[in-house]
Structures are given as structure tokens and as C-alpha cells.
Amino acid sequence: MKKLEDVCFDFGIEFEVDKENPEEIIFEVPANRYDLVCAEGVAAALGAYIGTKKPPVYKIKNQLNPIHTMKVTKSVTLLI
Length: 80
Prior knowledge:
The protein is of the alpha+beta class. It has a domain at 4-50: Phenylalanyl-tRNA Synthetase, Chain B, domain 1 (2-Layer Sandwich). The chain is built from two helices and two strands. The chain has helices at residues 4-11, 39-50, and strands at residues 14-17, 25-28. Strands 1-2 form a two-stranded antiparallel sheet. Strand 1 (14-17) and strand 2 (25-28) form a beta hairpin. The radius of gyration is 19 Å and the shape is elongated.
């Protein structure tokens, strides 16, 4: 089995061991990966990546009446 450092590097996240408390690991994750902001999310993602866990399956509830919708039309302009 690969070392945690190698798996994290291949997956695209970085980590470091806390110097004050060596039992804690600090993960640095991309801002767009909300699923990795907790220990359970990191464990699930890395487990799915190395093949020891199945990836999560998300289902959309109430597809006929979505709670939030957003329509983008040609009239939308980008302000810079």
C-alpha cells in the first residue's frame, strides 16, 4: 500500500503533521472541494481514490419541483 504522502500527492492535496500535536494531521485542500473540509470527507475521497471504498452516490430529490433554479440568458453581462 502506498504511503499517505504519496496518495495525497497523487490525489492533489497536501498535508502536514501538526508540530505541537504530532497526532494531528492538517490537510490543505482546494477551495472548490467542499467535500474535503472534514475528516470523514477526506477519508471517503481517499478511500474511493485508492479503491478501498465505493465512491458516494448522490441523488436529486424532487426533480420535478427543484427548490433553487438559475437561468442564464444572453442578457447577463460580466462586470469586470
